[in-house]
Amino acid sequence: MSEMPNTCVICKTQKHPDLMLFSDTCKACSNGFRRCSDCQNNSVASTWEDGACPRCTVKSTSGMAYGDNDSHMTHGEVTDLRATNSKPQIIGTLSTLGWMLFALMVLSGIIALGSEMGVLGIALIVSGVFQLSIFLGFSAIIDQLYKINVNTAKSDKNDS
Fold first, then answer.
1. What are the pLDDT digits (tens) for 73-127?
2. Interatomic CA distance for residues 51 and 45, integer angstroms
């Protein structure tokens, strides 16, 4: 007896049941993402058991599925899931590192000044200021490049 093919909600193709991870998701799409129409949760498709959202357990049949741009996902709605409001983590990391190095250098400079090594203490404090300005400058440059990239991407979408 021949088994009826199932339709994958991510790639929108009919596949043999042996190729399906669950009744609505094929094995090839299991690393893609699905969005729950009820709670708006984005999660890996392999965590959805038979169409039930892993967060709210509501069965979603709306087909709001998002792939990972693999070649087998040509029929489904493929979307980039990066958050558009979030800035790159390196911006915060660079500024935090700059402030930590500045505090460390100023503290070392104060300790050196207290132990009668005046020139070394002043040099450490000045180097802390330079390091802070370099790290904050790099984070500001990356932030500006990110803003330019986001604005360019928005204008490209408006043209089409």
1. 333 344 444 444 577 888 889 999 999 999 999 999 999 999 988 899 999 999 9
2. 9
44 within 8 A of 58, measured Cβ to Cβ: no
Q: Where do the domains of the chain lie?
A: 1-81, 89-155
Separation between Cα atoms, residue 64 and residue 23, nearest integer Å: 16
Among residues 41, 59, 39, which one has the least CA distance to residue 49?
59
At which residue do the structure tokens 């998701």 appear? 25
Dmax of the chain from CA atoms? Answer: 92
pLDDT digits (tens, 9 = 90+) for 17-68: 777 777 677 777 766 777 777 776 677 766 777 677 777 776 665 444 444 4
Residue with tokens 């490209």: 156
CA dist., res. 66 & res. 45, Å (int): 9
- Give the separation between CA 18 and CA 3, rounded to whole angstroms: 10
Q: What is the pTM of this model?
A: 0.45
Q: Which residues pair with 33 in a beta bridge?
A: 44, 66
Q: d(Cα 112, Cα 128) in Å, to the nearest integer? A: 14
Q: How far apart are CA 69 and CA 76, in angstroms?
A: 10
CA proximity to 123, closest of 138, 135, 111: 111
